[in-house]
Amino acid sequence: MALVECVIDRMISSSSVPASPLLRNLDAVLADIYVRHIALKKEDCHNYYEVFTQIFYKIHKAMKEVDPYFDKYSSEVKFAGSHFDRLRINKPDEYDMVIVVDVPFNFIQIEPKHPGRLALCKTGVKWRQSCVSSD
Question: Which residue in 15, 19, 59, 60 has its CB near the most CB atoms, within 10 A?
Fold first, then answer.
């Protein structure tokens, strides 16, 4: 659940919204509008994230049980998208997740040819050193 706490910690708490804001200039007015009416609040999102992560991690665990490759090489899960970037408004009704899957071998070899140019070579039995050059 540390992932959820990381995302929620980046949100605004309802208690941090001032009762009487100092609206001295346009920036202060826009900041107040954002805090009061646009930004997702920690308290509003906590339950949504708890339910989402419970469902997501059950699916993630089931995927690992079904696919040994995924079980071995899926290394990291991250939140992404509008929630994580603090751009989401209204209600948290969709979530973006990134599951990092490591590749257990290096099948693309970068070979510098000349300054400012390079060649990408796919190595291995299947590729038989097929190269693509930037020339």
Answer: 60
**Domain with 82 in it:** 2-102
Question: Given this model, what pLDDT does residue 122 score?
Answer: 59
Low-confidence ranges of the chain (pLDDT < 50): 125, 127-129, 134
Please provide the DSSP assignment of 18-86 as one string: -SS----SHHHHHHHHIIIIISPBHHHHHHHHHHHHHHHHHHHHHHHHH-HHHHHHEEEEEEEHHHHTT
Q: 33 and 70 share a domain?
A: yes
Q: Are 48 and 92 in contact (CB under 8 A)?
A: yes
Neighbours of 78 (CB within 10 A): 13
Compute the distance between CA of residue 101 and CA of residue 62 in angstroms, rounded to an integer: 16
β-bridge partners, 76:
100
Q: Do 87 and 23 belong to one domain? A: yes
The set of residues, in sequence order, having a beta carbon less than 8 Å from that of 110 and lying 6+ positions away, is: 118, 119, 120, 121
